């Protein structure tokens, strides 16, 4: 996405200040320089340098000779401490810098000078010999008197020279007004509509009366036309909009455009197999997320890398991981699994919902009326196990399942059978950082009831799905699931600490009734045992209305149980009612979808978009898709298919949230190793990676600096620094996988 800075006023102010040395008219009166001696006229004091850096004055600049061979950016640095930062105040960080030889990337931060060394703002410019000026505005998320401006120079194999001048941190500046470049006002699914499927678009316009629209083929000839339907002000974006329905046109084609109100949409296709490719790409995302194995460049060109966390320095390894102090006195081998997201943590709760959703994609392919199991079969995903006669999707998920099983507390220990909530670094690490280069100590965090039930549910589900391919593994998984179930029953309220968020996410959840329901459901569907059916039937969750506006997720897992009870064959008493409850939920999501001028089945309370809203939209679509699988009614198929339009660009930002799909697509998702935005030698996220999407709470400082006051759909920015709106994770790509597979089946 292009960014336009409306810096006119502040630029004028800056020039005027330079001329007369006084604040210019219009400049805030209280703009205050926070740094001492940023001009290096006679000394470098009070700037400090790490002991491995030789820093000094050189032609009125501070120059630093940086050694090669350090691992992390922060292993070599210069900076200034004891800065006061005020929460909610905006600051402008500016400097000139050059580097010799060309091309070195450094990290400039404003953060905390003491542990836990939080970073409030960071940028990672690539330096040239001739030098450049840099200027950024951000808003401090905290009050502190221990602030720091730091230039982190480490992580280079070779030595280089870094020079800087005119370093300034100006407080009290007006917050930067960020305006996203949203392109043409006709918003379409930039990827593809299905020939026989719904075809809808949204027009942003000031007009209140209906307008003509035209559909053009790639040669520019008008192939269909009609009039728009005025929809008034759209709450999710604050825009005045019309909707356009061109579903009567059913011919396949590429490079079509929709024209209305003098604007031409981004080009799109009708029925050219995009979803078949997405079906694969969405699952192919997982192989390079694997921990504990080298990623083969021949299988993922451009993504090959060393194995992460296998006890090769600087990694401390995952094969002998201790607990946090005081939590346990054993160590576990917890190698393998998928990294959760852009971080190097591995979390049983989030691994659980992701595993379930990939396995349910596979299970659906075997039982649904439109399912095509061969599509994700052996040889489909280009993974090391391709060719072993096991469906590739099962091989991929097995990588995670083996890890989840390793997280179970061993026999003989006080909490035997419970599962540790998570394993991750002792401290948060910076970006970029390849998995194999993470030097942090790894720690097991206390077991939790939810993690234990995630293990029970997914291991039970695995037991029925892997049985035809690996009986021993199926038996092992079922035994682990039973053990976990029993342990969770004995410790029903052992919740993860919501404050345990240093070095990794908390994934805290203070309600386990849904996880008990889910685990019981999977154990029942696999074993048919009455005890598990009784638990399902007695659970208050079984009859509760669980299909609310937000959509199910890692913390709210009741839908995983309900959807499986409704679709996986069983003799559960009252199964028809269960199926009806899914239809009822789908009806509600269809009502939402119809009321939304952008056509998505999502209208959160108070228009507060949740963290990862894109996957919640997809999850509501999964409920609609499941209603189609249950009933065969076309309205559900169409509603589910239409939900993809939002994800692929029919939205207020006019962008596709899936890398590699659509004219303008998210490609800077927050990641420590798909960090091309920070280091051009690293890859961007692979095609088929879903961005989290609009998040009204904008928890990260970068988004806070750009998106204050954002309305719903606008609370998103495609920048690697925005971890609260633009991360990628295994549980979001599982939602994409599930829907991509459904839509591909309808083509
Ligand atoms: O997706 C998670 C969101 O629902 C939580 O509110 C948030 C805070 O716990 O964490 C999100 O998950 C992140 C996790 O904690 C660490 N790895 C990256 C995940 C996605 O941002």
From TrEMBL:
Pfam families per the UniProt record, alphabetical: CBM_4_9, CelD_N, Glyco_hydro_9
Residues covered by the Cellulase Ig-like domain: 181-265
Superkingdom as given in the UniProt entry: Bacteria
EC number: 3.2.1.4
Gene Ontology MF annotations: cellulase activity
Catalyzed chemical reaction(s): Endohydrolysis of (1->4)-beta-D-glucosidic linkages in cellulose, lichenin and cereal beta-D-glucans
SUPFAM superfamilies reported for this sequence: E set domains (SSF81296), Galactose-binding domain-like (SSF49785), Six-hairpin glycosidases (SSF48208)
Class of enzymatic activity (EC top level): hydrolase
Entries under Gene3D superfamilies matching the protein: 1.50.10.10, Galactose-binding domain-like, Immunoglobulins
Domain Glycoside hydrolase family: 275-738
Organism: Streptomyces resistomycificus
Protein name (record): Endoglucanase
